[in-house]
Amino acid sequence: MSQRQIIQVFEQYQKSRFQFVQTVSDLALRPQNIEILQNAGVMSLLRCLMLDVVPSIQQTAALALGRLADHSDDLAEAVVKEGILPQLVQSLALKNRFYKKAAAFVLRSVAKHSPELSQEVVASGGVDALVLCLEEFDPGVKEAAAWALGYIARHNASLSQSVVDAGAVPLLVLCLLEPEIALKRIAASTLSDISKHTPELAQTVVDAGAIAHLAQMILNPDAKLKRQVFSALSQISKHSVSLAEMVIEADIFPAAVACLKDPDDYVRKNVTTLMREVVKHTPELSQVIVNCGGMATVIDYLGECRGNLRLPGIMMLGYVAAHSENLAMAVILSKGVPQLALCLSEEHEHHIKAAIAWSIGQIGHHTPEHAKAVASSDLLVKLLELYMDASSSEDLQAKSKKALKSILQKCTYLPGLEPLLYDVPSNILKYVVCQFSKVLPNDSKARRLFVTSGGLKKVQEIDAEPGSPLQEYINAINSCFPEEIVRYYSPGYSEVLLKRLENYQPA
To answer: Coil, strand, or helix at residue 364?
Structure first.
């Protein structure tokens, strides 16, 4: 065989290897092919080809493995069992930028499925190797490494700490300064994933100077970047007063409020989430958001969205109102109660209704004036319906009951209370009757209306246990009216009158 023929054989062999890995990589994009590839033993073949002398074959083999591992946790476990991770990690420092991106993709695809698989990546030295990739010149390599680190960090505090311990945070903050938008997005996302677990991890991100750089990007025109920026700021703010204050001190408000007009749904949701995480800590932080127009804008936003997009805004109003009478009144004056009533009528998911019930309770439990604002929007009846509805979730029933009881104990608005005299369980009825017993002795107009509306008649029909608080409240109400009127509306009195009529003999 001539030298030329030998060269042709080797060229053909190389071409076949490349064609094989390229075909497997393409096939791995389609879910229907995955099981067939796995049953054919493609993992072992790809592992061998990752050691090929031809760089393009190595890279394509790694890409194929990443696509397979990305498909399911079973395939990701198969990659681990094949012993591929140590081989990948070892070669990360030696290969070219194309291979590094493919290898980082494999590590990400394995890590994303579970904490256990992420731990395998950590145990193989993957985190240290990925952090080294953050120092590469090529932005694509940095992006792939940051993405993989984010998938590791998001699972739990321990894995997030391993990313921090490897020195990733300062390098991720530097990535925020790079001109490439895609790299900025992934860096912000990974910082968010690191920050979310504990105050200590969030503090590490803050100490690296992340807040100032994130704050500079909140008006960037790229919606996906803004999503990640607001997510990161939210995760930092949620842990403590001091961290929330650091975010506020970066002067992101009122510019962040303007982003509630952004056309992107998730930018608006993440801005609202940031406000929720800030206001929950103290009245002072709540006042900052109120003063810059954040609360009024959130109330408008609730009228423009649906479903889970509403949830952080609903909870934000509850947190603001919970702090003090004045802040709860600010929610009322900003038309927050009618907006929550509208949300309650439009939403069907029980967890959203439960959040609305909780927020209504935080608004209405302060004073009679606050309770009146809730009652006049017909929300007491709606809360009662949710509490009594057997199809309501346990959490929805509990939150509706708690809100209803706390508001009733302050409510002196009788038109809002009267519908609750009918078909109400005794544990709620006693609060309703108690409020009537407080108001009627001091209001003659209310007493007259109570008689003509049928309220007094209904009270006489209540079967209360003698000596119980409910019976005492009924006695207090009855003492507000002449005895003959009370008797007239008592059950059975009409029969007594008819009997007297039958026995009456005219003179």
So the answer is: helix
